Amino acid sequence: MSYKSFVSSSDSRLKFNQRPIQGALETILLMQPRIYEKSDSLDLTEPPTITKSGIIAQQVDEIPELSHIVSHPTEENETWGLDYRQIVPYTVAAVQELLALVESLTARVAALEG
Predict the structure, then answer these.
(1) Alpha-carbon torsion 61, 62, 67, 72, what sign?
(2) pTM exceeding 0.90
(3) For residues 61 and 103, what is the distance between their CA atoms, to the nearest angstrom?
(4) For residue 76, what are the CA distances in angstroms to 42, 81, 88?
C-alpha cells in the first residue's frame, strides 16, 4: 500500500479565492456526534449489524456552512454520504478560536491578579 494513496491534493496553486474560516467553533457546535447501531442495508426489517460512532449526513446537510460536504442519494435505494475530511479544517479553526479565547481570558485573569 502506498503512502500516496492517503494523501489529498492540497497544492495552493489549485486553490482560488482563499479566505479564513470564520465562526468555526459555532459551526462545529451545531454538529451532533452520535453512537449508533448501523445496518448495511436500507431494508429496515434487517437488524443493525455493528455499533459505530459518527455524524449523521442529514443533520450536517442542515448546517449551511457544511452542506457542501454531504452527498445526496440520487436513487431511493442509495444512502446519504458525508466527506469527513472536510470537517478537519473547521475543527482546526475551532481549536484556534478556543486558543485565542483562552489566551484572552488568561491575560484578563493576570491583569486582575496583577
Answers:
(1) positive
(2) no
(3) 33
(4) 10, 14, 30
pLDDT (tens place) for every residue of the chain, 114 residues total: 555 667 788 899 999 999 999 999 999 999 999 999 988 777 777 788 889 999 999 999 999 999 999 999 998 888 999 999 999 999 999 999 999 999 999 999 999 998
> Nearest-CA neighbor of 60 among 36, 32, 38, 37?
32
Q: Letter for the amino acid at 94?
A: A
**Residue 97 neighbours by CB under 8 Å, 6+ apart:** 24, 25
Cα separation, 88 vs 100, in Å, equals: 19
Torsions phi, psi for 62 (to 5 deg): -85, -5
Q: Are 82 and 69 in contact (CB under 8 A)?
A: yes
Query: CA 34, CA 59: separation in Å to the nearest integer?
Result: 11
